[in-house]
Structures are given as structure tokens and as C-alpha cells.
Amino acid sequence: MGKYFGTDGFRGEANVSLTAEHAYKIGRFLGWYYGRDKKARFVMGKDTRLSGDMLESALTSGLTASGADVYLLHVTTTPSVAYLVKREGFDCGIMISASHNPFYDNGIKLVNCRGQKMEASVEDQIEAYIDGEGGELPLAAREAIGRSIEYPEGKALYVDYLKSIPESPVRQREIALDCSNGSASDLAGQVFAACGIPAEILFCEPDGVNINRDCGSTHISRLQEYVKEHGLDAGFAYDGDADRCLAVDEKGHLVDGDLILFICGKYLDGLGRLPGHTIVTTVMSNMGLYKACERDGLHTEQTAVGDKYVCENMNANGYALGGEQSGHVIFREFATTGDGMLTSLMLLEVMNATGRSLSSLAEEVRIYPQLLKNIRVVNKTEARENPSVQAAVAAVAEKLGENGRILVRESGTEPLIRVMVEAENDDVCLEMVDSVIDVIRNEGLAAE
Predict the structure, then answer these.
(1) How far apart, in whole angstroms, are the C-alpha atoms of residue 375 and residue 370?
(2) Catalytic (active-site) positions
């Protein structure tokens, strides 16, 4: 990862670590980079954060000053930007969002012409320009100056596309959608109405500061209560930019990304639409998912944490389904990135095609208790490679055997070691995690 760009774009507190000046310079570079031999075209959206207007204006100024035309979707979802870049032949897509973070954070996500996350090589060049390396870029003049263009028809194209995806006849399901007071607040109602699926729309009154506040995929308890209280068939919760989805079954139980991958993977495999009978996961997926897949003849591949890496594996190997426990689920047949509303529609398709409830589909996977603890360290590499720590990790792995697993990894953004254990019960998880953390402390590696 670079100085500014991580696995999911440039993210930080607005006007502290991510400023309007940063945004302007990103726009200046991108407008020049893609417009060296033509008139470059960009499509841009944002979520509902207070700072979104500021960053949108700064990016637009930078892009047009470099001679590019920018098509403004305003409040929309990350997957809609990715879809439109590829469908309409834009040079680049930009999404202003900090996903599930609180309102005072924001971010700039870049999408290449294939609708996928921007290459690190381009991000590296942007960082160099932000830091003043390589000199100033030429400004466009006269008729070469770019324009900003209102683009509401882009969102209409995206809604029509999602409407075309479900293949099973629509059944009368009673559902609720938690829009997180974010990007899905307007679009979700349009999408499900277009699909003929009545839905109760919750948390869809953004005010600039309430995005993700006690709602959405990171605070799902209120949706769980609502589904149970109103006797609904299912509920779906999105994050701030609606590129991920978690579900709630009719009993109010959480159906996370791992369960969604199994349910949809098994269904697609039965239709002959799961190449290699394979689902792509990250190392954080629950052991219960792997055991269920093995039992039912499905294969899995693991990547590092981050939907970026899942997508790269899928593209390289031609796989159709992959994702993360957190709800980033990629249906490569239909999308180039995770799409929360698409995930909801696919789950409803499985329910409709099989005639089964969401709880009965999910109960085929036994999710193992999982505990993750972070410990702040002086040096991540030294802590992970310390012989005593490695011996402690090996001892835990031996004790767990086939009935659990341990994963110790470095945080990609903070000076933390993350220790995760899955086992048959919570007590064993706690005992095993603490045994490794105690060794890290005893070896003088902790920064606490």
C-alpha cells in the first residue's frame, strides 16, 4: 500500500488527512493522465457525507482544469459507478465515499475503464504528484477546458440493469432494506420497485452526518429486531456506499458474507454457473464455510483480506463468485465489484427458485465461534516472526487440530498484530487467543 492509497482508495478524516487540495490534485493528475491524446471522460458519484460536496467540487475543478469532462451522478453507489464506467466507455470512475466509516471520514475510490479498482501503478503516480514530484502539469486553455455534466440518466441505466438480472419469478416476499442513511437511500427503493418486490425502506433519510450511525451493515441489530417484530421474510443491510450487504433471516439471525457465499455458490453450481465449482474467499472466512463446501463438493480458494484481492483472483482464474465475511460479494457474471443490492436480489432468487426460507438455506453451514483480538506492537514483522510467538501459534494449531484454526497476521494500516481463533466454543477461542497475546507481551514486543 502507498502513502495515501490503501486497498480501498484514499481514505481519512475530511479536511484533516484528506483535504480539498488532495482532491483537486487527484483530479488534475487524472484529467491530464487520461487526456494526453484525447478528451478524457470521467463519471463520478458520492455518498451522503457532509464533506462529499466539498470533495466533489474539488475533484471536478481539477479534472476540468486538466481538460477532462466529468459526468456527475451525485449521490449514488460505488457499484453503479463501476457499472457505468465499463458500460458507457468512460476512461475512469471516481467514487467519493468512506464506506462504513463514520461521517467525518471520507475517501476517494478510483475505478479503471474495466470497472475494476485502479492499478497500483497509477495510484503511485498520483501520490508522487500530490507530493510535488515531477513538476507541474499543463492547464487546459480555451476550448480545451473541460465541462461538468449532470448525468441522472446514468443512475436510471443502472436501475434498469439490476432489474434485468433476477431470473426466477418474483414471489411475494416481505422484506426490509436498511440503507444506512447512505448511497442506497434513494436507489434501493427504485431498484426493488422496478423488480416488483415490495420492500420496507429503513434508514433512508440522510442529513450529512447520520450515515452508518446505529444502522447499516456494521450495526445490524436494529434490522434484526425489525424483521422479527414485523414477521418479515428477510432483511438486507448495506454499508455507506452500498457495495456490501449482510442479510437477516426470518428468525432475526444474521446471514453474513460467508453464508451468502455458500447459499449462492451452491445454487449457481447446481445451474452449472460456478466455474471450477469454486468460491473465492479471504483468509478470514469461517472454517464452517470450508467444511460445508467440502461436504457438498464445492472448492474454495483463499486470498489476503480485501475484496480487491478476491476480485484479482477471480479475474485471473475465471471464477464467478467470491467475497468476504463482511458482505462484499462479487458476482462476476454480473458485476466487477461487490454490489449490495445485487447480492440481495441474488439471495431472493435462490429463495424463490428453491421455495425455501433464508434460515433453512443458511442452516446448512455450521458457523464456528470466532474471536479476533488486536495487540499494538512496536514492530509488526518482528512480533510475527518472533520464535516464541511462532512456537505459541504452532502449539495452538496443534491443540485445535481439525476442530479449529488460528490465524495471526499484521494489520495493513496500523501497528497491530491481529490474532484470530476459531474453535468449537467461545471459551476455547478466548483461551487460545490470550495464550498467544500473552507471549507477545512477555517477549516485550507490545507497545502498550
Answers:
(1) 17
(2) 99
